[in-house]
Design brief:
Layout (H helix, E strand, L loop, with lengths): L3 E10 L3 H12 L5 E3 L13 E2 L9 E2 H14 L3 E3 L2 E6 L5 E6 L9 E10 L3 E3 L19 E2 L2 H4 L7 E5 L3 H10 L5 E5 L9 H8 L4 E4 L2 E9 L3 E9 L4 E6 L2 E4 L3 E3 L30 E3 L11 H21 L12
Parallel strand pairs: 1-2, 1-8, 2-5, 8-19, 10-17, 11-12, 11-17, 12-13
Antiparallel strand pairs: 3-4, 6-7, 7-8, 9-18, 14-15, 15-16
The chain binds NADP nicotinamide-adenine-dinucleotide phosphate (NAP).
NADP nicotinamide-adenine-dinucleotide phosphate binds next to helix 4.
Length: about 325
């Protein structure tokens, strides 16, 4: 099969707030970046509802709408967005090589992308508890009553009781959202206090449709292919008691894992897979490769901090290209 070759000064992997902000800056610096959409174009904000803490939107904005705005702004300055699946990368020499397929399931490399600099903004994906019954159908009940996205699947649980697992802001937000549909939301947490922000906790405590089930771990998700989820086997770790809790849906909201497998053994990362960057810069251990957003930040993980780090990565990439005589100094960034 014929391969297309694309050559760019700046290639950005991932199209969430970090990637698209990097694209806005790089395209305004006339570096003609290309953004590779991931499997979830727009990133995690596309599966959330109201975003109330992104500055500039006094009344809040819906996550997907915010990401449409990011995208339109990047495209306005000439950013090209390509929807392919990156199969492998070679970062051993510059230009770096990215081998792309049409989708994760295809066999052939159809596009080879050569990048003078690479900005990694591949974000993070939902984590799973790892108990029997949670696996995707047909093995388990994933997609058949088990979900990690209330925004995507909440609608299917109209009038039904559901369980949500987690104790962070995501779990609070998803629990609130599920009350629009579910008859009852049982929020199960493995400890006796939440790590979520106070304002989110208060909303949960004040919502009559949400019951908090403390000190409880899910050990198995029960049900059948035909009936879907019928209950969960739970363990109260204070009373040392196992029991069955009837429910018709399970939403897992226990955090995220960075999408950095492509760079294992090549780029420095911590034990969870978050890419390491140097000091206050977005530089990785390979000169010319930069990382930003949730792929690199395990601490703040906010849309606004991801966007800020995307800006920094683009300025770092521009500076790198100027230092290597591959771009002209852009007076606008004024560094
Ligand atoms: P998180 O803060 O890491 O919370 C994950 C929760 O899941 C914790 O309560 C944790 O329990 C629990 N957990 C982890 N592994 C588990 C397992 N195997 N079984 C059962 N429970 C498990 O993740 P997050 O809620 O996704 O939030 C991530 C970041 O995004 C945070 O900085 C948050 O503030 C931000 N965020 C903000 C908003 C907003 O402001 N609107 C919305 C969503 C997320 P322990 O507490 O016991 O560790």
């Amino acid at each position: 099969m014929a391969q297309t070759e694309i050559n760019r000064k700046v290639v950005i992997l991932g199209s969430g707030p970090a990637g698209l902000t990097a694209a806005i800056y790089a395209s305004r610096a006339q570096l003609e970046p290309i953004v590779i959409d991931g499997p979830q174009p727009g990133g995690q904000l596309t599966i959330t509802t109201d975003v109330e803490n992104y500055p500039g939107f006094a009344d809040g904005i819906m996550g997907p709408e915010l990401m449409n705005q990011f995208r339109a702004q990047a495209e306005r300055f000439g950013t090209e967005i390509l929807n392919v699946w990156i199969d492998s990368v070679d970062l051993s020499e510059r230009p770096f090589t990215l081998n792309a397929k049409e989708s994760a399931d295809s066999d052939d490399i159809t596009t080879v992308i050569k990048a003078e600099t690479l900005i990694i903004s591949t974000g993070a994906s939902a984590k799973w508890i790892g108990v029997p019954g949670e696996e995707p159908a047909p093995v388990g009940l994933g997609g058949n009553g088990v979900s990690a996205c209330a925004t995507c699947d909440g609608f299917f649980f109209r009038g039904k009781p559901v369980v949500i697992v987690g104790g962070g802001d995501t779990a609070m937000e998803e629990a609130m959202f599920l009350t629009r549909f579910a008859s009852k939301v049982s929020l199960m947490h493995r400890r006796g206090s939440f790590r979520a922000s106070k304002i989110m906790q208060e909303r949960v405590f004040n919502n009559e449709k949400i019951d908090v089930v403390w000190n409880t771990e899910i050990r198995e998700i029960l049900g059948t292919k035909d009936e879907g989820v019928t209950g969960v086997k739970i363990f109260n770790n204070q009373k040392n008691e196992e029991s069955i809790f009837p429910t018709q849906g399970v939403f897992v909201a226990i955090g995220h894992k960075p999408n950095t497998d492509l760079f294992k053994g090549v780029l420095e990362m911590d034990e969870t897979g978050y890419l390491k960057t140097e000091g206050r810069t977005m530089k990785t251990n390979i000169p010319g490769v930069f990382a930003c957003g949730d792929a690199q930040d395990h601490y703040y993980r906010q849309a606004i901090t991801a966007a800020g780090s995307g800006c920094m990565a683009a300025i770092d990439a521009e500076r790198f290209l100027v230092e290597h005589g591959e771009a002209e100094k852009n007076t606008e960034t004024n560094w």
